[in-house]
Write a structure and sequence with these properties.
The complex is a heterotrimer of chains A (about 220), B (about 220) and C (about 260). Chain A is an all-alpha fold and about 220 residues long. Chain A has helices at about 5-45, 50-65, 65-75, 85-110, 115-125, 130-160, 170-180, 185-215. Chain C is globular. By secondary structure, chain C is α/β, with parallel strands linked by helices. Classes of the chains: A mainly alpha (about 220), B mainly alpha (about 220), C alpha/beta (about 260). Chains in contact: A-B, B-C.
Amino acid sequence: MTFDWAFAWSIMPQLLWALRITILATFLGMGLATVLGLVWVLLRRSPWRIVAWTAHYAVEFIRSTPILVQIYFLFYMMPEFGLRLSPMVAGVLALGIHYSAYLAEVYRAGIESIPKGQWEAARALNLNPVQTWQRIILPQAFPPIIPVMGNYLVAMFKDTPMLSAITVLELLQTAKIIGSESFRYLEPLTIVGALFLLLSLLAAQAVRWVERRFDLKELNV
Amino acid sequence: MSALLDLIPSLLGGLWVTVQLTLGGALLACILAWLGGLGKRSGFWPVRWVAIAYIEVFRGTSALVQLFWFFYGLPLFGIHLAPMWAGILVLGLNIGAYGAEIVRGGIQSIDKGQSEACTALNLTPFQQFRFVLLPQALVRILPPAGNLLIELLKTTALVSLITLSDLTFKGMILRAETLRTAEIFALLLLIYFGLAQLLAFLVRRIELRLKRGWHMEGTS
Amino acid sequence: MSTAPIVSVRGLCKRFGTHEVLKEFDMDINPGEKLSIIGPSGSGKSTFLRILMTLEKPNAGTIEIEGKGLWHMERGGKTVPADKKHLRAMRTQVGMVFQHFNLFPHMTALQNVAMAPKQVLGLTRDEANERGQDLLERVGLGDKLDAHPNQLSGGQKQRVGIARALAMQPKVMLFDEVTSALDPELVGEVLGVLRELAHETDMTMLLVTHEMRFAQEISDRVAFMDHGQVLELDTPANIFTNPTLARTREFLNAVLES
C-alpha cells in the first residue's frame, strides 16, 4: 500500500474546511487565556493571603494536570450543574483555562523583569498606583511578552486535536471520519500532520520576525 | 471521602500503565534529546540536517496527530505496533524533540572561555565534552527538563484515545459504568497532580545533588 | 643572541571581516626570554597570543616553535595547513593564562589544576594531585585546594589559573592581560606570582599587559604594538626612558599620567 495522491487531493477541501474550526478554536482559546491569565496575576498579587495562595495553587494544579482530562471534565461535568455546553464551547473553555495558567507565569515573569529602581523612581515622582502601572510598568513589561505569547499560541494550536475526543469537528476529527469511511487513514492523517507542520513553522517564523523587528530580549519563564 | 476511596482499586491498573508510559517515554526522550541536541551542533551537515528535520517535524506537528499516524497510519505499511509501544515511541519522539532544544540551549549557554581553556590545556573534543561541558550543561538542562517531564506525564493521557487503558481511559470507563462523574474526575485530576508533584520533587532533589558545593553565579 | 629563537613569526596577518588586526607581523622570541607586549587596546596584542595558542587561525604568515611550523606542517616534502593531530602535538609546547580566568566552575581548585595532567599527559591520579598541590602551594593557595572558584577572590582565581597552566609544563607561556579583570587591591598578589616565575624559571614568558611598571621591572625586552604591527622592540630601559618613536612616547605619556 502506498500513498494515494489522487485520494489525498480529493479530501483536501474537506480538511481545509475543518482547518477553519481548528484556527477558530485556537484564537478563541487564546483570547480567553489572555484575559484569564491576567485575572490570575491580579489574584496572586492580592493583599489577602488566602486569595493569593489559592490562586497560586489553582494555577499550579491547572498546569500540572492533562488538558485532555480537563476537556472531559468541562464537557461531562457541566451538565451535572445544569449547564449543557456544546463540544466546541467546552473545548475552547478548556484550552483557554489551561493556557491561562501558563500565561499567568509569563505575565508574572514580565512584571518581575522590571527593575526595582523603576518602581522607586515612580514613587519618587509621586505617581499613583494606576499611573505607575499604566505609564511605567506595563509599557516596559508588555513588549518582551509578545513573542512568548506567540509561542503559546502555536502550542495551543497544536493541542486543538484533543478536541476531537469530545467530537468537535476540527482537523483530526475530520481526518478520522474520512478514515473510517474510506478505510484509508494514511492520507488524511499525513495531510493533517503536514498542515500542522506548515502552519507552526510559519508561525514560528513570524514570532522570530517580531522578536528581531522589535529587538526583544528573551524572557526567562 | 470513602466514596472516593472505593474507586481507587479500579484505577490502579491504569495508573501502572501511565507510569510505564512516563518512564519508557522519558528514557527514549532522553536519548533522542541528546542525539538531537548534539546533532544540531554537529559540524557535519548531513547529521545537522537530520537533527533539524527531526526536531522541527516532531515539534511542529501535534502529539495526538503523531500518535494517530503511528497507530492507524503505520499498519498500512505493514508495520503493526502494539498500542503500548506506539505510545512510548510517540511520547519519546515528541518530547525528545523539545528536549533536544533544551540540550542545545544548555550547551550553547556555556561561556566560550570554557572551551578556550580546554584548547589551551590540549584536551581532546571528547575530554572537553565529558569533563567540562557535560557537567555544566547538566545543571542548566535539569530544571527545564523537569518541566518537560511533567509535560510528558500530561501527554500520556492521549494514549487513552488509541485504546490503551491508562489512567484516563480507566477513568472514562469507570464513569460510563458508575456515572459518578464528579468524583471520578476529581480523583483523576488529583492523581495526575500528585504524580506531577512527585516528579518535580525528584528532579529538584537531583538538581540539589548535582549543584552541591558549587554554583554558576559569578564564576567563569 | 647566538641561540635560535624558540618562537619565530613572519608576515602574520589576521583579519576579522574587513578589519585588519595583524598586518605583516614579525617577531622572534628567544628561549627563556620574558617579553612584554604593550600598546593601545585594539592594537592586536591579544589576537597575537590567541593565534599562538591556536584559538584563532591566521589568514597568512608563518609561526615556528623550535623550528617547527605551528599552523603548517610538512607532508610529502610540501608545506600544508596543519591538521588536528599536528595542532595537538604543537600545543604541548604552549600554555595560556586568560584575562577572565576561565576556571572550570564545577571543579575544586585542585581538580582545576590536576584534571588536564591526568587526562592529557596521562599522569596517575596521585601524580596529578601531587603536581596540583605543589603548584597551588607555590602560588600561595595551599589552603584552598578544595575551594570552588566561586569561593575564591579574583586574585585567588587568577593564581589557580596560573597553576593550571603551569601544570602542563609548557615551554612558552602566554599571559593575556591577566590582571585586567581584577580589583586594584588584588593586582599585587598576582603580579607577585608572575615576578617569582620570571625570576626563578627558564620558561619563555610572553605577557600582554597594561602594568607598565611591572613590564619594565621583569621583562628582558618590551614590544610596543599599534595597528597590528610591532613599532618598537627593545630593552625596557630604552623603551620606557628613551623610546625612538614619537608614537611610543605619546602612548607611554598617556598611560603613565593616569
